[in-house]
Amino acid sequence: MREITLSQAVNEAIAEEMRRDETVFLIGEDVAEAGTPFKVLSGLVDEFGTDRVIDTPIAEPGFVGLAVGAAMTGARPIVDLMFGDFIYLVMDQLCNQAAKQHYMSGGKLKVPMVLRTNLGATRRSAAQHSQSLQALVAHIPGLKVALPSSAYEAKGLMKTAIRDNNPVVIFEDKLMYQDKAPVPEGEFLIPFGEANVKREGGDITLIATSSMVQVAEKAAETLAAEGIEAEVIDPRTIVPLDEATLLDSVKKTSRAIVIDEGHQSYGVTAEIASRLTEKAFYHLDAPVLRMGAMDVPVPFSPALEDLTVPTPEAVVENARKLCAGEMIHAA
Amino acid sequence: MSDAKHNSEDYLRMYRQMVRIRTFEDNANQLYLSAKMPGLTHMYSGEEAVAVGICEALTDDDRITSTHRGHGHCVAKGAEFKEMFCELLGKEEGYCRGKGGSMHIADQSHGNLGANAIVGGSMGIATGSALRAKLQGSDDVTVCFFGDGATAQGLWYEVMNMAALWKLPVIYACENNGYSEYTKTEEIAAGSITARAEAFGIEAHQVDGQDVLAVNALTRKLVDRARKGEGPFFIELMTYRYHGHHVGDINREYYRSKDEEKDWKENRDPIVRFRGWLVEQGIASEDEIEAMNAEIKKDASDAVAYAEAAKYPEASEVDMHVYAD
Question: Residue A164: closest CA among chain B residues belongs to which residue?
Fold first, then answer.
């Protein structure tokens, strides 16, 4: 199978959907000729023109608001939010407006829009361009949240998001745009709420999102060499969450670590760990462990920044302890 | 006005709609005062000529976005009493199945995209609706209602900039009732409000919001021009809210005097004023007007009785409509 980058996969998904459905359009800062700072959208303006690939002023609440109104009246906007950190700027439009229209109107209004943005630290971009804020939006009923872990997921999840009749937030890992993965030619969609078992194993379950899937896979290789077989699962969407696949795995392995790059406290890892504990308690041989980013603003200095995110080594160490029955006091 | 007779049906409909709004609000206030309505609500009484003058210049395909003080917009855009009172009382037959209530009432069948409980919260939605119209080659126009208090929100300046850059068919209608909740707007607004729109190159107008004919005539012109791609436009409508910020805001002398309220009610009431004009022009007699008022009053009390007796949503609805299929 051909291999393409995550960036190319996103570009291809959007182009295919824009060809298929003329109500789909792109809007955001520097999305047209610039193709975004990461060049993810390069070339789309040449095919679809500036009517459908719309450069906006630097006014995040304004253009997200425009997308909500366009979506409510018959269009399917894809909003580009240059950095995930800017979600704080658009919280009212996203969480008070987009997320609630369908419910508040008793099911009459719909907001079929995609907000694509990014997450991920270790790019030396400091505290306001490095956050992984998926937990914030996953907390809000009415929003769906997708976290692609490779080019394959990036394409399939984006196409599903564009066709979904709800506001969907997609976080791409900004450090993975140039990572290649096998992506089939031709159309495919990845349904929301279907976790992907990346690696099978019977000793411990590693549930990981986005870039943390790679971290979990590396850890699993090291563990395998030591005789510990880890099962690696990528939920792919955290809203909706494929609880059944996660529970089945944990009931089999009796141990689990949940890894996500958002802050650990009150985060994605906490939510998943809690559900596993509530629903698989009597199958567990050890507490379900959370591994998120440290609860500190992301520091600039490489010497400090690298300490804040989960690493394969840290996952290996924790997995060893869990399998050996040692107590771990997390965070 | 020489065409008064010719347009008499339009004028009578405008009068009727203004009285319907006032009557709706009188009933809603009573429901609140008698503790029959859950929560609270914001009365539109006194501002009727604004909603009616504007909405009578629109078709069902044209959209509006409304505010927390939104009953007037909803009635003026064509909504029915029964579904509105059901919504205010949280009943299943309400426009939003009781899930929105007074502050989120919406009626898509007539192009009302909904009231919004965040001050200025629908400015993006209205402008986005206009962007959609332009992208899809549709000739509908969107009117964004908001109050003078909302002009302090940053969102307005962001969306006006884009609306002006892209010549979007949106009309920003600022209902200036002089008060931002419990504060005189002149204490919190620097400079001129129309000048703020003009700074973006947007044609701005100020109109007497108590004169339904003046509001309607101006809006018709601007709507026609917006359909031809000459938008966006801004209108500042000078008006007054008879009640407090919300129905529970009874003792309000700390921010405005009873004399001021009395003056607006006695000397500038949009309904009394228009009624006088209709009689003077021979479009309707006092008796005909009284009969119309009585009929509307009966419609409203019938709708209230219906809504009071109507059923609440089933408990099974509570997690329905979180996500669309």
Answer: B325
d(C-alpha B163, C-alpha B125), whole Å = 12
Of A104, A110, A141, the CB nearest to B324: A110
Residue whose pair of structure tokens reads 């504060």 in the numeric block: B183
CATH number of A196-324: 3.40.1190.10, 3.40.50.2300, 1.10.10.10, 3.40.50.920?
Answer: 3.40.50.920
Q: Which pLDDT tens digits describe chain A residue by residue (331 residues)?
A: 999 999 999 999 999 999 999 999 999 999 999 999 999 999 999 999 999 999 999 999 999 999 999 999 999 999 999 999 999 999 999 999 999 999 999 999 999 999 999 999 999 999 999 999 999 999 999 999 999 999 999 999 999 999 999 999 999 999 999 999 999 999 999 999 999 999 999 999 999 999 999 999 999 999 999 999 999 999 999 999 999 999 999 999 999 999 999 999 999 999 999 999 999 999 999 999 999 999 999 999 999 999 999 999 999 999 999 999 987 765 4
Neighboring chain B residues of A78 at a CB cutoff of 8 Å? none
Predicted ipTM beyond 0.90: yes
Q: Do domains A3-182 and A196-324 have the same CATH topology?
A: yes
Residue pair A144/A169 in contact (Cβ under 8 Å)? The answer is yes
Q: Do B63 and A73 touch (CB under 8 A)?
A: yes
**Among A181, A241, A260, which residue's Cα sits nearest to residue A6?**
A181
Nearest chain A CA: its distance from B154 CA (Å): 9
* Domains observed in chain B: 8-310 (3.40.50.970)
Domain boundaries, given as residue ranges, for chain A: 3-182, 196-324
List the structure tokens of B195. 């000048």
SS (H, E, C) A101-122: HHHHCCCCCCCCCEEEEEECCC
Active-site position among A17, A29, A60, A305: A60
Q: Is A231 a catalytic residue?
A: no
Catalytic residue among A29, A102, A129, A217: A129
Q: Phi and psi of A4, rounded to 5°?
A: -130, 165
Q: A172: closest CA among A6, A3, A43?
A: A6
Q: Which two structure tokens, joined as six digits, stand for B47?
A: 């501002």
Q: Which are the contacts of B259, defined by CB distance < 8 A and separation ≥ 6?
A: none
Q: How far apart are CA B325 and CA B319, in angstroms?
A: 13
Is 3.20.20.70 the CATH number for A3-182? no
pTM of the model: 0.96
Question: HSE on the CB side for A116, CA within 13 Å?
Answer: 31
Yes or no, beta carbons of A73 and B133 under 8 Å apart: yes
DSSP H helices in A88-195:
91, 101-104, 134-138, 151-163
Instruction: Tell me which residue has tokens 């379900």.
Output: A288
Strands (E), B155-226: 170-176, 179-180, 183-184, 203-208
Interface of A with B in 53-92 (CB under 8 A): 56-57, 59, 61-75, 77, 92
